[in-house]
């Protein structure tokens, strides 16, 4: 396996969480996932994409609780390998399919999915570019639900630098208003931010959920023993968020692709220019 011999101090943030196989590496952890799934009410008939699915915890949970069909994509082969193992062990391989893919260029036809969910991935990427790709692969009336970190007030340059040291260069949470605008810019309508929360010090709740994730904990002790810098690295990230939590919140950026309509000349020109499908 690619990262098994890499030192923790050489891993970037994505490599670190892929090596650990963390199932809920997003703000609010798995409790936030469950709250959001309650709010969006996925039905068994819907075909769902989990974009940036990580080790597949949310996708497998959806398969088990709702019984819908799900595709999960992630750019990390190691995450996808773990997600497949999870689906197999949890008996949902018949409902969930995982593949390595870049969310900027998804291997699916236009108008393919009923719902795209994403959790803590757009924050690291070009938001409108990702949302345009979600727009393309969603059916008319299809929904997007993206759980992301938001800035509650301006982040001073020194803290932005520290944040990038913890989570990678380019980590860029927007204000709730900017998130809203990004989804609208990509063509979504009825945009709203659901379940907004300030970043609470609810480490214990999130930790209790992490302890239930067998894929994460199965060889965690060995990893901690072999790599003495693992705990300090995790503590540095958690410490940054704890110390500066007044700057951060999170919420579910939610919208719907408009109904297919007959194109007017102006719309046609717009779509040809921006390669956007209605
Ligand atoms: C913070 S993790 C979140 C994973 C998962 N959604 C969760 O909540 O646990 C971000 C994930 O996005 C993936 N990722 C980053 N850039 C990507 C891209 N361009 N296309 C697909 N996945 C990407 C990373 O490999 C990582 O698994």
UniProtKB/TrEMBL annotation:
Task: Indicate the segments forming the Methyltransferase domain, all copies.
Answer: 46-186
Q: Where are the transmembrane segments?
A: none
Which domain of life does this protein belong to? Answer: Bacteria
Q: Which UniProt keywords apply?
A: Methyltransferase, Transferase
Quote one Gene Ontology molecular function term: methyltransferase activity
Biological process according to GO: methylation
* InterPro entries documented for this protein: Erg6_SMT_methyltransf (IPR050447), Methyltranfer_dom (IPR025714), SAM-dependent_MTases_sf (IPR029063)
Q: What is this protein called?
A: Methyltransferase domain-containing protein
- The organism named in the record is Desulfosporosinus lacus DSM 15449
């Amino acid at each position: 396996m690619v990262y098994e011999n890499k030192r923790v101090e050489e891993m970037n943030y994505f490599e670190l969480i892929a090596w650990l196989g963390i199932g809920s590496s997003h703000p609010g952890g798995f409790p936030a996932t469950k709250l959001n799934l309650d709010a969006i009410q996925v039905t068994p008939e819907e075909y769902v994409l989990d974009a940036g699915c990580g080790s597949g915890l949310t996708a497998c949970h959806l398969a088990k609780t709702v019984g819908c069909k799900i595709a999960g994509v992630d750019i990390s082969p190691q995450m996808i390998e773990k997600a497949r193992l999870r689906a197999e062990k949890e008996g949902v391989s018949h409902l969930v399919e995982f593949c390595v893919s870049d969310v900027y260029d998804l291997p699916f036809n236009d108008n393919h999915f009923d719902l795209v969910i994403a959790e803590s991935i757009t924050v690291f990427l070009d938001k409108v570019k990702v949302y345009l790709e979600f727009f393309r692969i969603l059916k008319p009336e299809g929904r997007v639900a993206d759980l992301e970190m938001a800035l509650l007030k301006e982040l001073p340059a020194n803290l932005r630098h520290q944040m990038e040291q913890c989570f990678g260069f380019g980590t860029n949470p927007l204000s709730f208003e900017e998130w809203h605008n990004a989804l609208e810019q990509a063509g979504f309508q009825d945009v709203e931010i659901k379940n907004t929360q300030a970043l609470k010090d609810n480490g214990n709740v999130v930790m209790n959920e992490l302890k239930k994730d067998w894929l994460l904990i199965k060889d965690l002790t060995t990893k901690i023993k072999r790599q003495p810098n693992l705990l300090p690295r995790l503590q540095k990230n958690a410490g940054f968020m704890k110390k500066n939590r007044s700057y951060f919140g999170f919420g579910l950026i939610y919208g719907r692709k408009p109904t297919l309509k007959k194109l007017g000349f102006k719309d046609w020109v717009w779509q040809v220019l921006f390669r956007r499908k209605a």
